[in-house]
Amino acid sequence: MHELSLVTGMLDMVRNSAEENCINKVNRINLVVGKLSMVMIDSLQFCFEALRDQEPLFQGTELIIEERDAILLCQECGTKFILKSNYSFLCPDCGHANAEMISGRELYVDSYEGDDTEWCR
Amino acid sequence: MVQIKMTTHLLGANELLANKNRRLFEEKGMLVINLMSSPGAGKTTILERTIEMLSGKIRIGVIEGDLYTDQDAVRIGNKGIDVIQINTEGACHLDAGMVGKAFEQLPNSELDLLFIENVGNLVCPAEFDLGEDYRAVVLSTVEGNDKPMKYPLIFHQARAVLLNKTDLLPYTDFDLDRFREDLVRINPSAEVFEVSGRTGEGIEDWLQWLLEEVKKKQLLR
Asked: What is the pLDDT at residue A121?
């Protein structure tokens, strides 16, 4: 349900950056989403497609979403493990309950690609 | 064609405001609890009980989040404490900006304990830091024991989990052992309180924990 506001915020960020970098057409936005962020990929895409055509800067822009696994690092024995569908945060090697999440909560624009104009520099 | 590297978090603006709230709460030595659950799990009833039983011991304030109406704020206000209602008008969660503004409107901001009652929802509120010290999640027995597995993020982040409506346990299929097992896997360090907001059973342990945490926060000031 909050995907629409996330996409609106994302477009604001990219628009600001595009202005600073003399980009008048964004072709692609590369977004990284962790599997444990409470975001629906389909819903993000849907909201993105609904909003992008409202301004020339984003006409036809592609949204590429890279999903990242939730990876935990056990603070007791150093084992790295992927969070499986049983959502066990316990270390599979030593059984301790002290693991730090090192990925899985990502929700950021990694980069974007666009056409630049020389005249505004 | 050029590529611009950004690595900018989509919730970056919220994070900044949340940190601002957190600094303000720290200066005041105030413990702040972000109380979350699905609609109808009993957040407001637990708050009413908590306020009744702690009245005279510590200074409590409440920020109420709902889509519409001030019904919860009226209930809390009837307990004789300061409360500010936020109506999100359709938004499924509170954000740090809303909380910052609401806090400014509290008539008395010198508090020991501030509760932020979030919009009833187990999904979206989990993403939004409000500047709180702890998140507390309420689950009621009538919702079923599978909820921690279905909404792992919110239960993983919780410092306290309150299982509410334990007085209704005999009338449900809620599997208490299974619930406890699942929770240990998802969040082994959570404090778990089994309570009935209606009868008051089990609330004492929750209050004890709150009072200890209030004290700890004041010592950090």
From this structure: 60
For A98-108, the pLDDT digits (tens) are 899 999 999 99
pLDDT in tens, B29-50: 999 999 999 999 999 999 999 9
Burial classification of residue B37, based on how many CB atoms lie within 10 Å of its CB (0-12 exposed, 13-18 middle, 19 or more buried): buried
Q: Which residues of chain A have pLDDT under 70?
A: 1, 121
Domains in chain B, CATH or no CATH each: 14-220 (3.40.50.300)
Contact between chains at B185 and A89 (C-beta distance less than 8 A) = yes
Q: Give the burial class of B211: count Cβ atoms within 10 A of its Cβ; 0-12 exposed, 13-18 middle, 19 or more buried.
A: middle
Distance from CA of A61 to the nearest CA of B (A): 13
Nearest one of B73, B53, B43, B45 to B61, comparing CA atoms: B73
Classified as helix, coil or strand, B160 is strand
Contact of B140 with B162, CB cutoff 8 Å: no
User: CB pairs below 8 Å between A and B: how many?
Assistant: 96
Strand partners, A109: A31, B8
State yes or no: ipTM above 0.90: no
Residue recorded with tokens 């979403």: A65
What's the pLDDT score for residue A69?
95
Q: What are phi and psi of B158, to 5 degrees?
A: -75, 135
A40: amino acid identity, one letter: M
A38 vs B8: CB contact, 8 Å cut-off? no
Angle between helix axes A3-20 and A41-52 (nearest 10 degrees) is: 50
Query: In this complex, do B6 and A111 lie within 8 Å of one another by their Cβ atoms?
Result: yes
CB contact under 8 A, A110 and B7: yes
Q: What is the dotted CATH code of the domain comprising A1-69+104-121?
A: 3.30.2320.50
Q: What is the crossing angle of helices B43-54 and B203-220, to 10°?
A: 70
Cβ neighbours of residue B17 closer than 8 Å, sequence gap 6 or more: B95, B96, B97, B100, B131
Residue A86 has what DSSP assignment? T
Residues above pLDDT 90, as percent of chain B: 90
Work out the pLDDT band at B151, boundaries 50, 70, 90.
Answer: very high
